[in-house]
Amino acid sequence: MSYPFSLPPNRCQSRNLEPAIDARTMEIHHDKHHGAYVNNLNTALEAHPEFHNRDVEWLLRNINSVPENIRTAVRNNGGGHANHSLFWELLAPGGSKEPGGALAKMISDTFGSYNAFVEKFNQAALTRFGSGWAWLGMDPQGKLQVVSTANQDSPFMDGNTPILGLDVWEHAYYLNYQNRRGDYIKAFWPLVNWDAVADNFKATR
Ligand SMILES: [Fe+2]
Fold this sequence. Notes:
Largest sheet: 3 strands, antiparallel
Order of helices and strands: HHHHHHEEEHHH
CATH architecture: 3-Layer(bab) Sandwich
CATH class: Alpha Beta
Strand content: 5-15%
CATH superfamily: Iron/manganese superoxide dismutase, C-terminal domain
Bound molecules: fe (ii) ion
Distance between the termini: 21 Å
Number of helices: 9
CATH topology: minor pseudopilin epsh fold
Radius of gyration: 17 Å
């Protein structure tokens, strides 16, 4: 999908994520925050038809070839669009509750165990100062990595491919959890649909 970018439907609201994530937070998060990223990305690209056939992943992977006068806008809003689009697909009650198959094996081989992976991911999410994301992604050598990014920076910008992400901006949890980011992180895991993560994993190979 390329310019003009559009806000994906709010599939999360129709899925019941409460009490982990309340419906009001999800509505504002999707409609207002993600909506603004999409609008601002389109505004930035409007006068640049040379990028109108590029998808958001290409724009982020090639952010340095985007003209300087719109680079920050594309980085922040393109990142915001890509990050949230992936995030919504992962939040689904139902589906597999833990990784299986080749992904489960690679997580164990890389991190020692599933629990060790979760611990590492939680640390990345907890220690991200200010706003940002924690990620499980695939690096260009085909190795799994846990990383965190600031603001709406995308793992694509570093050549990595995100397969699982957690939004730790306060807008993702403040109504329900206020300053208790750790409680929000804990509530996130039962929502993860590992079938969606597995699809992302397969697409990287
Ligand atoms: Fe967000």
